[in-house]
Write a sequence for this structure.
């Protein structure tokens, strides 16, 4: 378990990470989501021990990263934004070096490297120089390095960048299978990727944590201010009359599309589903409905809103709804 | 540490750098050896080595420039410093690998006195102790080069600054000759150094009192000592700075037939200090 408390990182006068607090439990996939420059990489660099925080502390299973860095680092595998590969080594040489660096016992190294290369599909390029490999393969070599030794926590900074669609699917499957025995933390600025993979999302913007929850919760919590749109044939007065009789409705808006055809936007009361009631009411008044659909805000909207407006956006969003 | 040592050493010989550097040094040694020892018949190999020293000044920057600058530029340092290895182990591993590359030509140098012997009389004690001092001096230069490499992201800047630093050390003996002998002049320079140190203390601690106290105490004691016993200040800087001459050990072995133990201690100290500074400069980067 990793616990991050009041984490602050300043580069001179620029605050890259501003008072982050979160904890990571075992055996789940966590997603750091945020636009470029939000502080994802800095946070990851701190929780892997590459950078030191200006303030705050990071502990893993109770070990402080500053006081017992070796124990801490042994339980973490890290794939940075740019895979840390030596271009003048072959894949096999590089992985052997990484395995020795990570203190994997001599007898296990060879077998483990073969197993991992098989899993990440590197076996056919094992004896090629990393400098001659494509970006996607280098990314995989970096990933193999992060998995070496099967550490408790695997931290991946934008693991899908530079991969082709086929590779993305493969890596996604790999990450899912890893999550059975490991905790995986990955970062991305692509929402779809995080929603697809992660059990838990942390949205970061301008160095601040603006929201954290499971994808379903985030979606439900933030997005159900959906409106209902209807196309109704009839006179404006008749339509208004029907709408005025509706219960559990907050607001409505009428706009004329053509003669005897209106576009109606209905805002339901909190948590109410009034689609059926609307249908029956209009049917009862002999006003034909040409269409009826619910327009839901997506996680995408929320993400954009949160990350563009920064820290206060979530609270104001929730307040507005209440 | 062993992993890093092995990897560094093999990367020197994978990339030709190692072969090229060794060949370069050996070639020049061979040329000088042919001229001084074979053609002119001078029986001391150490004389050849003293000419090769200039070549060493070019080689060391090339050997050390990539050590940390390149890691930082290609971001591979993220692997090293997130692995369960201490920073000083990384530094030691890299340093020893560079020293090993440098050791190879030095071992080959050991054959040259034997060639001289086969042609007549040779002076093994003098020659081998100068090879040893030559090796140690190179190791000290390498530690300086490694430190410069850890300061920057650009191997070129690292190489140029290492070359400048080692060149100054090369002419150190002549430079210190130009320092004044008089007590008052030395006192003035000491006062200037105290002021610079005080300014540095202020910059680091932002404590006016500490800075003023340091300046006052050091300046007052320097002036008092100078008044009481001015002979202490005569040639002070020349003596102090002169004792930092890294080439002294080699020159003593080569030209005076003296094995200078104090020079060995000086070289080892320089190596330790620059290893420490390298660790600190890497550590500092994590915090800023």
């Amino acid at each position: 378990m990793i616990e991050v408390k009041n984490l602050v990182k300043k580069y001179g006068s620029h605050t890259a990470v501003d008072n982050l607090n979160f904890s990571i439990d075992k055996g789940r996939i966590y997603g750091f989501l945020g636009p470029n420059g939000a502080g994802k990489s800095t946070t990851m660099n701190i929780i892997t021990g590459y950078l030191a925080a200006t303030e705050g502390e990071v502990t893993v299973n109770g070990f402080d990263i500053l006081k017992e860095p070796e124990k801490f680092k042994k339980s973490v595998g890290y794939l940075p934004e740019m895979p840390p590969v030596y271009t003048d080594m072959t894949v096999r040489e590089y992985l052997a070096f990484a395995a020795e660096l990570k203190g994997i016992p001599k007898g296990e190294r060879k077998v483990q490297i073969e197993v991992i290369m098989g899993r990440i599909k590197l076996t056919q390029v094992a004896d090629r120089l990393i400098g001659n490999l494509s970006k996607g393969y280098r990314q995989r070599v970096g990933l193999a390095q992060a998995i070496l030794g099967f550490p408790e926590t695997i931290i991946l900074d934008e693991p899908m960048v530079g991969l082709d669609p086929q590779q993305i699917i493969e890596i996604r499957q790999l990450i899912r299978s890893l999550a059975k025995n490991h905790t995986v933390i990955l970062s991305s600025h692509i929402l779809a990727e995080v929603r697809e993979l992660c059990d838990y999302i942390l949205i970061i913007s301008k160095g601040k944590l603006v929201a954290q929850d499971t994808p379903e919760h985030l979606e439900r919590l933030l997005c159900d201010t959906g409106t209902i749109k209807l196309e109704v044939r009839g006179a404006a007065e008749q339509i208004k009359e029907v709408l005025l009789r509706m219960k559990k409705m907050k607001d409505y808006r009428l706009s004329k599309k053509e003669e005897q055809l209106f576009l109606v936007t209905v805002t339901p009361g909190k948590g109410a589903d009034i689609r059926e009631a609307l249908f029956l009411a209009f049917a009862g008044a002999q006003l034909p409905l040409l269409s009826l659909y619910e327009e839901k805000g997506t996680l995408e909207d929320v993400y954009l809103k949160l990350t563009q407006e920064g820290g206060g956006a979530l609270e104001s969003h929730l307040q507005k709804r209440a | 540490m062993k992993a890093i040592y092995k990897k560094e050493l093999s990367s020197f010989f994978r990339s030709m750098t190692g072969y090229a550097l060794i060949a370069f040094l050996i070639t020049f040694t061979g040329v000088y050896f042919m001229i001084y020892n074979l053609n002119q018949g001078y029986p001391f190999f150490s004389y050849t080595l003293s000419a090769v020293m200039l070549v060493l000044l070019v080689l060391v920057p090339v050997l050390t420039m990539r050590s940390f600058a390149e890691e930082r530029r290609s971001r591979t340092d993220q692997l090293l410093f997130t692995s369960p290895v201490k920073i000083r182990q990384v530094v030691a591993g890299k340093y020893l690998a560079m020293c090993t590359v440098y050791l190879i030509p030095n071992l080959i140098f050991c054959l040259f006195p034997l060639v001289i012997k086969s042609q007549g009389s040779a002076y093994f004690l003098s020659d081998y102790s100068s090879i040893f001092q030559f090796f140690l001096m190179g190791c000290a230069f390498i530690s300086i080069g490694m430190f410069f490499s850890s300061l920057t992201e650009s191997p070129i800047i690292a190489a140029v600054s290492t070359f400048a630093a080692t060149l100054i050390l090369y002419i150190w003996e002549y430079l210190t000759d130009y320092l004044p002998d008089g007590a008052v002049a030395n006192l003035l320079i000491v006062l200037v150094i105290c002021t610079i140190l005080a300014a540095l203390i202020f910059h680091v601690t932002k404590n006016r009192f500490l800075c003023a106290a340091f300046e006052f105490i050091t300046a007052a004691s320097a002036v008092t000592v100078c008044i009481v016993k001015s002979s202490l200040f005569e040639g002070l800087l020349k003596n102090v700075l002169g004792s930092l001459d890294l080439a002294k050990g080699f020159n003593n072995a080569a030209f005076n037939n003296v094995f200078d133990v104090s020079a060995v201690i000086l070289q080892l100290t320089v190596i330790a200090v620059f290893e420490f500074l390298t660790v600190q400069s890497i550590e500092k980067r994590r915090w800023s």
